[in-house]
Fold these 4 entries.
Entry 1:
Amino acid sequence: MCCVSSDNHCKLEPKANTKVICKRCKVMLGETVSSETTKFYMTEIIIQSSERSFPIIPRSQFVQSVITQCLVQLSSARSTFRFRIQGQDDKVYILLWLLNSDSLVIESLRNSKYIKKFPLLEDTLKADSSSAWSAIKVLYQPCIKSRNERLVSLWESDISVHPLTLPSATCLELLLILSRSNANLPSSLCHMNSFQVQKLSHRSTTCPSSHS
């Protein structure tokens, strides 16, 4: 709601709905910036030629690939390695620190115990029971439910930290992906100082775009 002054009084008028929602699945795809401009979230759409066949990409793999590409590009272009992952309401969900972008992960997932725990990841795990893939290595801190408020405040006031805005549901998806069990690793490799350590896959997918 927005406040509009009229005859020295303040009345409430409904604010225009700027969200772009998919009619079929009800997912938020982007938002209308102006009458001539629409902003789409890169994690929600794929833009490609209609002449090409449309690939079926597991959601978890797609989210990881898009976020990974974005972090690598931003760190290269702006020399920044710390990011605030936040929703469209500016609520911070994750503090993320990029350590390196050239990791190679060789992993057997056939007997993974976290398939039952995280159904979102099941399609990826079934498709790649044993694989090798490129990845980036990150440190992260979850910030939901008022966790790490002091650290969030410090990072918000630090101009070297770059904000990355995504739909709130996608922020939670990313947090779920980052929170996957590291049960097969010693605890010394799962944490660094107060941060948790994780890898995000950088597998080849059709490159998504933001488009107006």
Note: The two ends are 26 Å apart (CA to CA).
Entry 2:
Amino acid sequence: MDDTRTSLDVKEYPDTEVQKNRILTLEDWQEKWVERKITFHQEQGHQLLKKHLDAFLKGESGLRVFFPLCGKAVEMKWFADRGHSVVGVEISELGIREFFTEQNLSYSEEPIKEIPGAKVFKSSSGNISLYCCNLFDLPSYADIMLSLMRKGFQYLLSVFSYDPTKYAGPPFYVSDDEIKRLFGSVCTCQCLEKVDAFEERHKSWGIDYLVEKLYLFTEK
């Protein structure tokens, strides 16, 4: 492996506007599911989350865990199997149905009267509820997450660092300064771990390194 990818102390790009014109529409996202362009899905689950799961849960039981943009993340079943309640939001109905099918979970579905066209899919056990609707009908992702945080909250956020002048995303580049700007007034932001996430397929993006960072946000 060459030196450009061995160091996890990668360059930060101060221009957070470099990707501002790159928009992933709802149609783009749903098309990825239909065309099976879902390399973001990790069949074995997110390994950094698995590694730091106990630190996140801190021995607590009966938590309510929110998965924004959940797709068919297998991690949702990890939490449900530990006795926690899971709420997810995903625009792709296909992704939601695949989650229940692949996890061998029976479920029901019903419309959400307050949101035209939206549905909620609930596991028969009652501890997993996945809402099929557009999270971004609300103005800002960061504002949404902050509004959902109760006293004593814990929030895990995974972001990627790479050269955004070479690749427009997704996933989108998020700098340390941007994280502090969006969440720092309310949260203590701790980087739990950085890992080299670069794979052969990323060469086609025109980049030569990709670092994943896992942050833990707690109440200030």
Note: The helical segments are 26-34, 47-57, 75-81, 93-102, 141-148, 176-183.
Entry 3:
Amino acid sequence: MYQEQLNVTSPDTPLQFRADASWVQFHLGISRHGLYSRSSPVVRQLLQDMRRAPTISADYSQDEKALLGACDCTQIVKPSGVHLKLVLRFSDFGKAMFKPMRQQRDEETPADFFYFIDFQRHNAEIAAFHLDRILDFRRVPPTVGRLVNVTKEILEVTKNEILQSVFFVSPASNVCFFAKCPYMCKTEYAVCGNPHLLEGSLSAFLPSLNLAPRLSVPSPWIRSYSLAGKEE
């Protein structure tokens, strides 16, 4: 499994898999009672690693790739949401879901906004992790904030030509990229660095389904993204 990851963009020196990597220890510590134990020292280390580890690859998620042949436009957002997200892989083979900052923290959603284009709060992901831990549920994957250099840590390390094609330099000389997707296929929905640095949230991945089979329980409050009807 880990040998297959050697095809990702990497430094000249071959990358070595480390069994003591924080993301591996996080996966091994998952139980039926929570994603991590109350006294686990692994979470703190995992948050530090996601904040600082060098990025060696950037790509779409598997959900998005599965939809490439299902519609006329390339997917960046998942079918279960409308947020622009990318998968970043680190030098220790760990990976995280990157959700970029789309607006300032003091901006509020206008009352007349159509919910397809509602504001995307990257810091809500971070707050959800901390609130979940305070309430002692321990069901939300560790999530941390990070300043990402969109040029060096995304554009220059991705092998995906479609992802490369959505980058551009704005009139303000900031490096930007946008989503090609069913809901946000317009450049005005781009996210931009300043000029290269972009704040965002990084959420740790759970083990793959082939390593950790599990049930998926739909949210009872799921909403419909169709104008034709509502969810039951």
Note: Residues 70-80 have pLDDT under 50 and may be disordered.
Entry 4:
Amino acid sequence: MKRGLIVGAGLTGSLCAALLRKEVSGALFLAVWDKAGDSGGRMTTASSPHNPHCTADLGAQYVTCTPHYAKKHQIFYDELLAHGILKPLASPIEGMVIKEGDCNFVAPQGISSIVKHYLKQSGAEVCFRHCVTQINLRNGKWEVFKETGSPEQFDFVVLTMPVPQILQLQGDFTNCESDFLYSYLN
């Protein structure tokens, strides 16, 4: 069974995991690691410690669908709308710039519900507080080290965290050919 790791449990990592699950034929163990204590990345929803029904979106508060992206990604918007994860934004937000043809959506259960939806779809093993520190290519496998625990080996690794965090990683992965992942996926 092939083993894959996606580093980052934000929107990019969760959607990547869901798409990999749909597209990769055969048996695939898929893991998603994030250094934070919950999913969402820059699309996090926080709850009040005193009232769990009182939430605030940290980062993105709404999603804008431009006419250009509506054509390219309509299937994603339709799916999120059908599951009640997104709903049309009914009221303008102070300071919001509305352009002709744009559609704005909110996530009634919090913006991180989008990320959680895709993580659930992916069937991945999601691990929080897994801070990746080093990646090395050893005997055709990616050896991934984290702050605590033993390193693990994967057939492929997808990094979806911000570039400054990628640049802080140790290891010889930066010297490897960029088409290594593409050869596995194709």
Note: The first strand starts at residue 2 and ends at 7.
